[in-house]
């Protein structure tokens, strides 16, 4: 069994309440930081831990903090990104629902490090029930002197609020999130300036994922050196993986970075293997935006090495033969999955969620959805397959925010690795649209 | 008696106003517009699951901003219903990860049971059927949301049971007792 750092006490009865959480060592990092460390020391400690952002991009958290513009009379803000909308990802919801005080503790310690006096948790609007859990926990934290004026007599004061979104994937992108928090449509901003200079209300701001912030308490309480002992190389620590799709044991698992992918999928400690005794066809390892990989390539790299659950190993081979750890939204497809249909639902998702500001994304996502719909429903042409690749290429890198790339990559990767299946749909529309029909490379006499 | 279309009385209850004031206190005095999304959620719960132009005008009045500023926000975010809805809105996740676990079949089952298509309201006015994108519940799909409640790991039997329970349910507002 791997060691759990964030979720060690997650199943303790009543851990969502202040008293039980405190009894299990909760809020120790706030005491330690506010009483014995300067804000700069907290930042240095997080830097030394090697923690990388858990929202998807994997940018080193301590480094991001150190970019925050120096105080010059303006307020500074910490905003927690709890928008969790990346298809396949449900770890932040789990963490906030079960361990609300862990996130609050992380917000206090991190806000202290950044010099923020007011901080916000921006949670997706669909999770209003989780917002209520967090608000209850925040009220407890105020009542016990961990929020509000002069926390623990340290002279440091902090207000913490939860803010609901309104249903828009794009508000997970940090500048769209800030626009939304200001009461506007969620249109991403041009960067630079980055939020570290011009963020919420034009003030220096750090935006961090729920899991990133929830990791800070362990690092501060136990030291960066202890944290860095977990994981492998630049993939330090543990990561929450939300496992879904066609597996026996879907759920959220805290793994030490470095677990082999094969063990993660097949061992009973984690996913428990493929459901219904079937074989595995493909995996999307880091949320819907990362490239899909067929069974052979998710288990082993192109060089024949075992693929590990680390940032480096999953991206080994680049986009030709690799993928990304991303948000940790790991979903598995069995041999009965139609890749074309699945890719179409994802293209439809990105089209639906494009904010519409840039034409390559607005038009391109609609185009890809339409072409995939046509192929899936038996009206496709052979040249449609290359058309998909060409549209994806024209979106990639030509947009204000990374949603364009996120929409292009899954489609390009599906065609890259499963071209025969797309061709089969075009060549045999009747077979392909028959109820329950699935392309099977080994058995197919049609292809 | 003349039966004109009932328009919602655009007067927030005291409970709703208290919630609104609580949210307004979260943002700097010159940044009160930040409260627009929280207030729209409160408005939708208060006025039967949707926000009419009159309701949006009222929200603009509370925030002291132009009505257009509320319209442009309410139309951008998918959670706000801009037309009347049934007593309950079923929001079924249709995205890939849920599809792998049977959302296509769930949607078909609900359409048959309710006698209406996605986007429509059942004849008895009890249910509006909507599809939505990933609700961060992919490990427990197929699933759907009704107001603040998630219904997960649904199969035909549990979906039918859910429909029965919802029909009998008295809808309460978050700031009311026994919510
Ligand atoms: C379209 C899009 C959606 C995103 N959604 C989320 C999200 O739901 N949650 C999240 O933490 N980060 C999301 N991100 C990444 C954020 O922009 C940002 O990088 C992240 O919150 C930084 O936190 P971290 O450094 O702690 O990972 C998204 C990015 C893009 C481009
Ligand atoms: S890439 Fe898409 S989502 Fe991002 S700003 Fe442009 S149109 Fe909006
Ligand atoms: S795909 Fe349905 S909840 Fe994520």
Automatic annotation (TrEMBL), chain A:
Keyword terms, alphabetized = 4Fe-4S, Flavoprotein, FMN, Iron, Iron-sulfur, Metal-binding, NAD, Oxidoreductase, Quinone, Translocase
Give the Enzyme Commission number: 7.1.1.-
**Pfam families reported for this sequence:** Complex1_51K, NADH_4Fe-4S
Coiled-coil region(s) at which residues? none
Which residue intervals define the domain NADH-ubiquinone oxidoreductase 51kDa subunit iron-sulphur binding in the entry?
Answer: 340-385
Q: Which cofactor does it need?
A: [4Fe-4S] cluster; FMN
> Which of the seven top EC classes does this enzyme belong to?
translocase
Membrane-spanning intervals of the chain: none
Q: Please write the reaction equations for the catalytic activity of this protein.
A: a quinone + NADH + 5 H(+)(in) = a quinol + NAD(+) + 4 H(+)(out)
Q: Which SUPFAM superfamilies match?
A: Nqo1 FMN-binding domain-like, Nqo1 middle domain-like, Nqo1C-terminal domain-like
Family per record = Belongs to the complex I 51 kDa subunit family.
NCBIfam families per record: nuoF_fam (TIGR01959), PRK13596.1 (NF010120)
Q: What is this protein called?
A: NADH-quinone oxidoreductase subunit F
Native organism is Rufibacter sediminis
Gene designation per UniProt = nuoF
UniProtKB/TrEMBL annotation, chain B:
Sorted UniProt keywords: 2Fe-2S, Iron, Iron-sulfur, Metal-binding
Cofactors that this protein relies on: [2Fe-2S] cluster
Q: Does the keyword Metal-binding apply?
A: yes
Q: Which InterPro entries match?
A: NuoE-like, NuoE_dom, NuoE_N, Thioredoxin-like_sf
SUPFAM superfamilies from the xrefs? Thioredoxin-like (SSF52833)
What's this protein's family per the entry? Answer: Belongs to the complex I 24 kDa subunit family.
Q: What NCBIfam families does this protein map onto?
A: nuoE_fam
Q: What is this protein called?
A: NAD(P)H-dependent oxidoreductase subunit E
